[in-house]
Design a protein that fits this description.
It comes from Lichenibacterium ramalinae. Keywords: Coiled coil. This is DNA-binding protein. This protein has a 3-stranded antiparallel sheet. It is mainly α. It has a domain of 66 residues: Multidrug-efflux Transporter Regulator, Chain: A, Domain 2 (Orthogonal Bundle). It is built from 6 helices and 3 strands.
């Protein structure tokens, strides 16, 4: 728990006062279990110890934590730092492996999508060729029908030879 005076600050104000990023401010408040409450504007307020604010007046690079934030509270010796760093490296290694796995899955999905798109493009091309062939065959069928009708008309209009006329007369007489 905290002893002494505190100041209620938003995460953004806390980040500015401690010269860290707002995400680092959230992690710091969570790690130290500093009390939180909603502010009048709906943003969270955190009870930051005055002592912690006073220690932060020296300039630091943005997004870095100082030694007090990195090392466990129980012991600030090299072994504790090494243990912390080894655990953090393990966490980051696991995160990297997971990120690589997710990236590989995304690459595989993108490859599969490209293959599917190519297959659809080929199918669309084949459909265009088939449509053109069907249209050509329909046009040819129309030409054949026109020629058939012309030949049938010629056959029905030709004069009947005399032998057919004679045989027709003989059949009617009988």
């Amino acid at each position: 728990m905290m002893d002494g005076a505190t100041r209620w600050l938003t995460y953004d104000d806390m980040a500015e006062a401690l010269n860290i990023t707002p995400d680092s401010a959230r992690r710091l408040a969570t790690r130290h279990k500093w009390p939180r409450r909603p502010g009048n504007d709906g943003r969270a307020l955190v009870a930051v110890p005055e002592e912690r604010l006073e220690r932060s007046h020296e300039p630091r690079a943005e997004g870095t934590d100082d030694e007090a934030d990195i090392l466990p509270e129980a012991g600030r010796d090299a072994r504790a730092l090494i243990g912390y760093l080894e655990r953090r490296i393990g966490e980051l290694t696991d995160d990297l492996a997971e990120s690589r796995r997710v990236a590989e899955e995304a690459r595989n999905e993108a490859r599969d999508a490209r293959i599917a798109a190519e297959a659809l493009r080929v199918q669309a091309g084949q459909a265009d060729v088939l449509t053109a062939l069907v249209a050509a065959e329909r046009a040819h069928l129309c030409e054949v029908r026109v020629e058939r009708d012309r030949l049938v008309a010629l056959l029905t209009q030709r004069p009947t030879p005399w032998i057919e006329r004679l045989s027709g007369l003989l059949r009617k007489a009988a």
